[in-house]
Amino acid sequence: MNQSPRVERRPSVCPHDCPSTCSLDVEVIDGRSIGRVHGARSNTYTAGVICAKVARYAERIHHPDRLLHPLRRIGPKGSGAFERVSWDEALDIVAAKFLEAERDFGSASVWPYYYAGTMGYVMRDGINRLRNVKKYSGQYSTICTATSYTGFVAGTGRLAGPDPREMAVSDCVVIWGTNAVHTQVNVMTHALRARKERGAKIVVVDIYMNATMKQADMALLVKPGTDGALACAVMHVLFRDGYADRAYLARYTDRPQEFEAHLKSRTPQWAAAITGLSVDEIEAFARLVGERKRTYFRLGFGFARQRNGSINMHAASCIPAVTGAWQHEGGGAFHSNSAIYHWNKGLIEAHETVDTSIRRLDQSQIGRILTGDPDALLHGPPVKAMLIQNTNPVSVAPEQELVKRGFSREDLFVCVHEQFMTETARMADIVLPATMFMEHDDLYSAGGHQHFQVGPKLIEPPGECRNNHEVIHAIAQRVGAAHRAFDMEPRALIDGTLKDSGWGSLADLEARVHVDAQPPFREAHYLDGFAYPDGKFRFMPDWTKVPSGNNGPMGPWTAIPSFPDHWAVIEEATGEHPFRLATSPARQFLNSTFNETPTSREKEGRPEVMIHPLDAGPLGIGDGDWVQLKNHRGDVYLRARLFDGVRRGVLIAEGLWPNEAHPHGRGINTLTGADQPAPYGGAAFHDNRVALAKVDPAIASAPSLSSAADKRAAEAIVV
Ligand code: SF4
Prior knowledge:
- The protein is an alpha/beta fold.
- α3 (87-105) crosses α20 (468-479), α9 runs antiparallel to α12 (268-275) and α12 (268-275) packs across α13 (279-291).
- Bound molecules: iron/sulfur cluster.
């Protein structure tokens, strides 16, 4: 008699690069496979809500294209021709190549490279232990948070803010520069509750009529990179019309009178010409936040992905300092709570071995670095060997033509530890199969709220997949790297990290499932002062000393305006490149993750660029036509989608689609730049000037190079 499967519900937590870090309730079937993934109601922020792409995670974890065995390249780079080898053979090759590079070019010629494919501390950050012990080149992490964190901390002195659950008790929630419906769905839970229960208004500031803006009571469609102008004009009105809280300003801010004088000329008329908004829209927004002291500014990453992104983020965070909203429940500004956990990752990363004389290479400039740009290499040795975990730079990094050229170097050895044959894995010499989050133990904390949690191993990994910690340990043994953490089990590393950080033990945490680490109200609202020594919020930050943790190479900081302003350093349109392109996130993908699952690809459709019909008309572009986007970095083909929810002159391409989904295998990051925004670098993914043209379908639909490579790979891979 057939027995029905045994289904257990086990707690877990989403590991993906998303501020929500949702608590999960996972169906485990017969102890071997994953069923439906649910949101766990016990987490009072994520509150049982998760996104659809993670709800159907079974499709990803049990995907037939998972990498299952170590592979060694047997054809030209990028050909996709690999043969199966044993773990020992693969690891011996990696170690030999690392030792060879170290011997011939010095330890800094080895560059371990990673990012946030998992946000678990053991699996994500253990690569830094190997780096530190061996004195390999450092990674200056700029690709996501550098501009936004810096901008927020410039004002407050700390990367933390009022409890995001307070959005539900706000009278106005301003969702600024984040398409929360696509990228952090839980923001909507609390904002919509405030509207339903209190009649709160939802304002959305963004650059196109996206899924979040469609839910707004007030939709403010700004031109990309002009948020600083909007913020200044709003504050001009707040001072002008008596909405400024002068007692609060005197007690809690640095230079209120000078700032007010500075804003005198930043009128709504001035900002209207820059932002594309009408004077009436700016006045109405200012009145709304002036009248509603409980206004919660939920500031996202998107609007900071500009060359003036830090300055715009800082400007937006200044508004509640003018109204005094910071002091009210349901008021203030929030970007991330990363500072509240006071993690001590010394054990995981072997901090006592850090040598500050070793260079730190800018992760976003990987194209320049691998093609030998002396400035990007900080005038040190070439990169000769890499280990890559949890990221896919041949899709996600800017300046893709350089990135691809770099990875094509015959003298560069690359080992990629991955879950799928990504674009980067395809360029590797050795490919190692990696676990997914339900196949290993790890520790996670949320940027978008205040919980931390363990995600336990729920099932055995398929094939020969190994977790990151195992791989780092095995390489360390072979290259002579010694540290006690290499020999510890992941659970012991979690336990040690919790204890070192003052959060009890792993057993304590598992008994509680997750911990709510929200600081007390007074601290979260800065009622005892902001996190600078004098307790004052900074309208005029010292941009050379922002305590953001991103103390890497400096951009052109001396030119930053003293007070919030519109800083005109964005890649403005020109006669040759008359459009501004933003590469916004798609709902069903998360960077390049999930673009391998059939359901996500099916729901997203195809790579498209949104074009205003009045821009498309004169160029003879109709809905669905093939178009070429081009700038000095390269060109990309995709389909036109005529859409009047973008401003004239602005183009939006939601992604990230695999490179192979574009004709000629050139993905959207072919067009994005890697120059370092002030003050501490970053990646201005939404700040690109391009030309737009309709193209002959025969040119556009030529088979992609990577499709051809895939075909060869399918024939050549032995598994
Ligand atoms: S919303 Fe974000 S954190 Fe939550 S399940 Fe989806 S990807 Fe994960």
